[in-house]
Write a structure and sequence with these properties.
Keywords: Heme, Iron, Membrane, Metal-binding, Monooxygenase, Oxidoreductase, Transmembrane, Transmembrane helix. It is built from 17 helices and 13 strands. The chain is an alpha+beta fold. The strands form 4 sheets. It has a 5-stranded mixed sheet with strand order 2-3-9-6-4.
């Protein structure tokens, strides 16, 4: 009798699990969804999505499904059903219909990491307001009038330090360089003078687990990531409190933090300390991480392609030749004249594909290529499948800056979305491109360098340098 009861219960359990699996794999919907697989319940196809792969290819996860299902397919990642688009026309439509049919979306785990008060969580007028706050800091006008000189000086100081050591790991050192300038610019933070908080270390902990499986258990990368964010937010919040309680009255904005505090004190603003602190966190994170990754990739590509390095060096030596004084910093006019440099930058970020996917949520039912995507569904734009598409780029896996000759170098398009698109075009893109150009100028005109080891790249799915990129560097003698 007991054996029959156990057997009966097991049968019921198996049927229940089978039913759950079926319901997960065949969700009820009036929509005509693209073909695909949602994998196992809750887990979905997350493990396949996070499987490491090498740089020079479209992600195998996506390539395999495109060949099977077409340019639009259904999947499930970290418990979320997602329609993936690899179609340039569809991608562009998604960006252009921001806040009309689509809105920005991040998974629960990602929002938890970046903060519910983050600019990433806002839509419509709220997003526009926060974006305008950031533009006060990184607009082309402010870059030209106020930031270029400080960025130039910070970069020169970093190069001097690197050459004094003789050898550096490019990713870490360039991240330190950009972070030092951004932290000073935003909140007058100096790591060498900080008494209580290691802000750079907290961000490093945060970044190490940013793109990881969202399991919050001590010892996991995700848990360390959360702790890194917590520590960084404490340092930023402490800076706000210290500044707000200071007896010194502000007569002018000395840094971005002062500007935010004045904005908070405006009775008509929606800004509060929590939102402002989270805004500082996102600015610091986005500014130094993506920029240092691009710097590292550019260094690797130049090392691997002497013909590109020769052409780039020629452009920058010509800039020096036309100066009346050799030791002055880069001027805005010189920066705007760096045509080949911007071709190198565009080609670097095209191949780097730093952002593995851009997510949007459907606000109302929409038809995409004959499929009906219902309200509430998540779609993911895949930049790499466009950037590495042989129909759009001849020999797409080759590093060839000359492919950009005669083309628009400063805007996004259907074929180029390294900085996003639409109203969500990366607000810090101009800052990143300026920093890259300044770095390249001093690299090719003032220093002798060569890559000595490292340079291997994997994605899981974010771009990583498991062995770093090590560079031997020394100052050129006049």
């Amino acid at each position: 009798m007991e054996l029959l009861t156990v057997s009966y219960l097991i049968t019921i359990l198996v049927l229940w699990i089978s039913y759950k699996v079926y319901k997960w794999s065949h969700p009820k919907s009036k929509a005509n969804l693209p073909p695909g697989s949602t994998g196992l319940p809750y887990i979905g196809e997350t493990l396949q999505f996070f499987t490491p792969y090498y740089l020079y290819d479209i992600p195998p996860f996506i390539k395999k499904r495109v060949s099977r299902y077409g340019s639009l397919f259904l999947t499930s990642i970290v418990g979320q059903k997602i329609v993936v688009s690899t179609d340039p026309e569809v991608n562009n439509y998604i960006f252009q219909q921001e806040d009309k049919i689509f809105e920005c979306f991040y998974t629960d785990g990602f929002v938890k990491l970046l903060g519910t008060e983050s600019i990433l969580a806002y839509h419509g007028n709220l997003h526009k307001y926060i974006k305008n706050l950031i533009l006060r800091l990184v607009s082309p006008e402010n870059l030209k009038e106020n930031l270029l000189h400080g960025m130039d000086l910070n970069t020169r100081n970093a190069f001097r330090s690197w050459s004094s050591h003789g050898s550096v790991e490019v990713k870490e050192e360039s991240a330190d360089m950009v972070f030092a300038y951004a932290a000073k610019l935003v909140m007058s933070y100096d790591e060498t003078k900080a008494k209580k908080n290691n802000l750079r270390g907290s961000f490093k902990d945060f970044l190490d687990g940013l793109i990881s499986f969202p399991i919050n258990i001590p010892g996991t990368a995700f848990h360390a990531c959360l702790q890194g964010r917590k520590n960084a937010m404490k340092a930023i919040t402490d800076a706000f409190i210290e500044r707000q309680t200071s007896t010194n009255k502000l007569n002018e904005h000395t840094d971005f933090l002062d500007y935010l505090i004045e904005e908070i004190n405006d009775k008509d603003t929606i800004l509060n300390q929590a939102i402002a602190a989270d805004l500082v966190f996102v600015i610091l994170f986005a500014t130094f991480e993506t920029t240092s990754t691009s710097i590292t990739m550019a260094t690797k590509f130049l090392s691997d392609h002497p013909n590109v390095l020769e052409e780039l060096t020629k452009e920058h030596l010509n800039i020096l030749k036309n100066r009346s004084e050799q030791d002055t910093g880069i001027t805005w006019k010189e920066y705007k004249s760096m045509t080949f440099t911007h071709m190198v930058i565009n080609e670097t970020v095209r191949l780097a594909n730093i952002v593995p996917g851009i997510f949007r949520r459907v606000i109302k039912d929409v038809n995409l290529k004959g499929y009906t995507i219902p309200k509430g569904m998540i779609v993911m734009v895949s930049p790499s499948t466009v950037h590495l598409n042989s129909d759009k780029y001849e020999d797409p896996l080759a590093f060839n800056p000359w492919r950009w000759k005669g083309k628009e170098l400063h805007l996004g398009s259907k074929e180029f979305m390294a900085f996003g698109g639409g109203v969500r075009l990366c607000v810090g893109a101009d800052f990143a491109k300026l920093q890259l150009a300044v770095y390249l100028h001093y690299l090719v005109t003032k220093y002798r360098w060569k890559v000595t080891k490292g340079g291997e790249i994997i994605r899981k799915p974010g771009l990583m340098f498991p062995n770093g990129l090590h560079m031997q560097i020394s100052e050129l003698q006049n």
